[in-house]
Design goal:
This protein has one domain: Rossmann fold. The chain has a seven-stranded mixed beta sheet. The protein is built from seven helices and seven strands; from the N terminus they run βααβαβαβαβαββα. Helix 5 (92-97) links the parallel strand 4 and strand 5 (102-106). With 187 residues, the chain is of the alpha/beta class. 33% of the residues are buried. The structure holds 5-O-phosphono-beta-D-ribofuranosylamine. 5-O-phosphono-beta-D-ribofuranosylamine binds next to helix 1 and strand 5.
């Protein structure tokens, strides 16, 4: 069994997808869910699954180095860290320690639409296809080697909300599939 951690900041539907997947459960133990937002919905999701959590408020620390030091103590010896809507940039030092072991999901066909509001921007630009990317994390925002992408043709009769829903469904499927491949050593 591999040992993994999931980092999240918000609603946690991707966390939920990974943590509920029988395939993922057969390959890895989720040792910890790390969250930088007190009160985020993802915290209850982890607690309901009896997954250990580390919730911190960055404002309680002098700087990034200080809170990452504490995170690193909590995430000792993990095989992989999956970011699932974690809204903070990991430092160079952190990424050095977990080189090639931190994976992120982003709701766009990278390298297009890096950063926030990616789905809205792609929708408003009238993109024919909208999709999802899973990639290794490096120091560049939404950079790093691409591991998997999937997309669908946008039906502009659908509202932005509906298209966002489609993207999130696709995210959950692709994250489970790709995480399983990584855990099996196939990626
Ligand atoms: C997802 O769209 C993910 O791709 C992005 O942040 C969002 C998190 O959603 N990085 P959730 O918290 O997993 O529901």
């Amino acid at each position: 069994m591999k040992k993994i951690g999931i980092f999240a900041s918000g609603t946690g539907t991707n966390f939920e997808a990974l943590a509920s997947s029988d395939q993922i459960k057969s390959l890895a133990n989720i040792k910890i869910m790390v969250c930088d937002k007190t009160g985020a919905k993802v915290i209850k999701r982890a607690e309901d699954k009896n997954i250990k959590t580390f919730v911190f408020n960055p404002k309680d620390y002098a700087n990034k180095l200080a809170y990452e030091k504490e995170i690193l103590e909590k995430v000792k010896d993990l095989d992989y860290i999956f970011l699932a809507g974690y809204m903070r940039i990991l430092s160079k030092d952190f990424l050095e320690k977990y080189k090639g072991k931190v994976v992120n999901i982003h709701p766009s066909l990278l390298p297009k639409y890096k950063g926030i509001e990616s789905i809205k921007r792609a929708y408003e630009a009238g993109e024919e296809y909208i999709g999802v990317t899973i990639h290794y994390v490096n120091e560049e925002i939404d950079g790093g080697e691409i591991l998997a992408q999937d997309k669908f043709k946008v039906d502009y009769n659908k509202s932005l909300d509906e298209v966002e829903g489609q993207v999130h469904d696709l995210e959950h499927r692709l994250y489970i599939k790709t995480a399983a491949e990584i855990l099996k050593g196939e990626k």
